Amino acid sequence: MTAPRLDVDLGRIEHNARTLVERLALRGISVTGVTKAGLGSADIANALLRAGVSALGDSRMENIERMRREQITAPISLIRSPMLSQVDRVVRSAELSLNTEWSVLKGLSSAAGQSGRSHAVLLMVELGDLREGIMPDDLADMVQVVLRLPNITLIGIGANLACHSGVVPDHNNMAELSALAESIEQTFGMRLEMVSGGNSANLDWALGAEDTGRINNLRLGEAILLGCEPLHRRPIEGLYTDAITLVAEVIEFKAKPARPWGAIAQTAFGQAPADAASGDRSRAILALGQQDVDPAGLLPPAGIRILGASGDHLITCADSGGPVVGDEVRFGLNYSALVRSMTSPYVLKAMNRNSAAGLCVSQTPECGVLSGRAG
Ligand SMILES: *Cc1c(COP(=O)(O)O)cnc(C)c1O
Known about the structure:
By secondary structure, this protein is of the alpha/beta class. The chain has helices spanning 10-25, 42-50, 61-69, 87-93, 102-114, 139-148, 171-188, 203-208, 222-226, 335-343, and strands at residues 5-9, 30-34, 55-58, 76-78, 96-99, 119-124, 152-158, 194-196, 217-220, 228-229, 234-235, 244-257, 280-286, 298-299, 304-309, 314-318, 328-333, 348-352. The protein has 2 domains: 9-233, TIM Barrel (Alpha-Beta Barrel), CATH 3.20.20.10; 244-373, Lyase, Ornithine Decarboxylase, Chain A, domain 1 (Beta Barrel), CATH 2.40.37. The strands form 3 sheets. Strands 1, 12, 13, 14, 15, 16, 17 and 18 form an 8-stranded mixed beta sheet that branches. Strands 8-7-6-5-4-3-2-9 form an 8-stranded parallel beta sheet. It has a two-stranded antiparallel sheet with strand order 10-11. Pyridoxal-5'-phosphate is lined by residues 34, 36, 59, 79-80, 160, 199-200, 219-223, 230.
């Protein structure tokens, strides 16, 4: 088969999504299935919809438009603040967008008016991670102006943590979001339909909290695709951590000295090679490099250790009985490796529709770590 390729097991993705949808439903929390790491693949979107997500979310209009072209009719949220230059496209293809800027909201309002549509907006509040969000003290003023804008409907507020600064979603910041929702409702005599607490990093809090307050939605991508919670990158019980794997082919296998020889300067990507071993090593080179994946985010199978990577070569050290030329090696991925390989034109995306979901759940010891290799 073609390599490198991402093997995407749609049944396992569906299983992961359904498990989280069911667990969160017990706490009154709906799931927006986030498709951005899959580039808006309709196969992945449909797996999420079969699993019962209440809506889809994506950060990029290109992905949202791709899903619409591929006949996805479910509600879709644009989860990154719209670009002012794209408001026409936003109201055409997305039912809802997450917003923080007055000028953008005004743009959405007039674009919606011109195209005879109505568009829903959620206001994002800054709770300390210092990415997107209106400062809490400014929220009421923003609500007031949004309520006066024609053709857009304020359906709620939301927050996003653990992305830029690693701020942990916890009882305090989630209670602050709930309190803000209640204060907006009291001040303006309205009901906020959605209070969207965050992303996969909220799962520890959402599944462990005694009281999830007013939070009734989470936007989940990584936890569904990789089966891991992103705060400590631990596997989530009952989820597959190998729903998506990356396969690469061995193009050289030789015993070579562990240490380089000759005068040493910079490498192709700047960093100096580090190998403390002496003597000979079995080195397997795979046709996989920086242009295909973030090599630092690869989780190799047992018996294979990654020594380094250049643009097109992954240099590994293999135990005896290692792979031969032409063998495929299967890697687990972290989020960084996943998005790089999904966006690489060199990596085939192999969508496997025939897998049986939920029959047996692999309990891998660590996120993405797999054993064995494909022949
Ligand atoms: C990417 C993103 C998500 C989903 O994050 P995961 O960690 O993949 O669950 C949710 N909300 C916003 C605003 C995002 O940008």
